[in-house]
Amino acid sequence: MRVFLALDLSEEQVNGLVSLQKNLKKDFNGIKWVDGLSLHVTLKFLGEIEEYQLTSLLNTVNKTVKDFPPFDMSLKGLGFFPNSTKPRIIWVGVEQGNEHVSELWKEIEFSLQEEGFPMSQKAFTPHVTLGRIRRIDKKIPVIKWINQYREFYLPPAETNHLTVYQSTLQPQGAIYTPLKKIIFYNNEGNR
């Protein structure tokens, strides 16, 4: 099974990102847009794992985040991977909460490595992927978009859990199925 760990977004944030996607679609049609229900901040993509590894993964992640405090996360700006001259991925960055997301990513990376899962080979940039550029029929208005949406902002929402998802590849795109929500520590000690 293909598995990844992600932070979910609030309904308001999802609606704001879907609205942004609609605006971007007016300028360009060579992009495979991420469905609104699938928008998230990926913490760790594990790829294919065996069923027996899932229990170990869940236990390790649960131990890692059990003392992690909830935090507020806002979204801002538009970016491109690998860069704006050769864009393949369109994304919105995490602004408020960026340092918390990065710290959570680091803790998860190290704890999973100790359990035998491979470390990520890429630098981590907290973001939400909006779309993947599949073909280039005309020049993508990257600079226009960056300038126009530099101040694009979605207010913070509390992030108090991460979700372990299964990703099933289908011809129309990946289907994400939540396997387990893992709640962060809270002041009342409720979990």
Task: Give structural attributes.
191 residues; four-stranded antiparallel beta sheet; single chain; globular; 4 helices; 9 strands; 28% helix
Number of helices: 4
**Would you identify the CATH architecture?**
Alpha-Beta Complex
Instruction: Output the CATH class name.
Output: Alpha Beta
Multimeric status of the protein: single chain
First CA to last CA: what distance?
27 Å
Rg over CA atoms: 17 Å
The sequence of SSEs as H and E is EHEEHEEHEHEEE
CATH superfamily: Cyclic phosphodiesterase
Low-confidence runs: none
Backbone structural class: alpha+beta
For the record, the count of structural domains works out to 1
Number of strands: 9
- Order of strands, main sheet, comes to 2-6-5-4-7
CATH topology: Cyclic Phosphodiesterase, Chain: A
Overall pLDDT level: 90
Question: Quick gist of this model?
Answer:
By secondary structure, the chain is an alpha+beta fold.
What does this structure look like?
The chain is α+β, with helices and mostly antiparallel strands. The protein has one domain (2-183): Cyclic phosphodiesterase (Cyclic Phosphodiesterase, Chain: A), CATH 3.90.1140.10. It contains four helices and nine strands. The chain has a five-stranded antiparallel beta sheet. A hairpin with a 2-residue loop joins strand 8 and strand 9 (173-183). Helix 2 crosses helix 3 (98-114). The chain is globular and about 45 Å long. The mean pLDDT is 90.
